[in-house]
C-alpha cells in the first residue's frame, strides 16, 4: 500500500522501501541546467536593454540639439 509521506521529490514510500520514480540526481541536473540557462538568458536581455537605452538616449540628445538650433534660428541653409 502506498502511504503519503513527505520525501524528496518524485519518491513514493511503500511498506518496506522507498521507490524513486526518477533518480534524484537527474532532477538536480535538470534544475541546475534550467537555472544556468535562465541566468544566461536574463543576462542577454539585460545587455539588449542597456544597448537600447543607450541608443534611445543618443537619439534624444541629437534630436534635442537639432530642435534647439531650429528654435534659436541657427538652422543650416543649403544653397546649391
Topology (SSEs and partners):
Blueprint: E1 11-13, E2 18-20, H1 24-71
Antiparallel strand pairs: 1-2
**Helical/strand content category:** mainly alpha
* N to C succession of SSEs: EEH
Largest sheet: 2 strands, antiparallel
* Morphology call: rod-shaped
Strand content: 5-15%
> How many domains comprise the coordinates?
1
| Total count of helical runs of at least 4 residues | 1
**Low-pLDDT runs:** none
- Give the fraction of residues assigned to helices: 55-70%
Strand arrangement in the largest pleated sheet:
1-2
Straight-line distance between termini: 95 Å
The total beta strand count reads 2
What radius of gyration results from the CA coordinates? 31 Å
Mean pLDDT: 77
Write up this protein:
This protein is mostly helical and 80 residues long. It has one domain (11-71). The protein has one helix and two strands; from the N terminus they run E-E-H. The protein has one helix at 24-71; strands spanning 11-13, 18-20. A hairpin with a 4-residue loop joins strand 1 and strand 2. The protein starts with 10 loop residues before the first strand and ends in a 9-residue tail after the last helix.
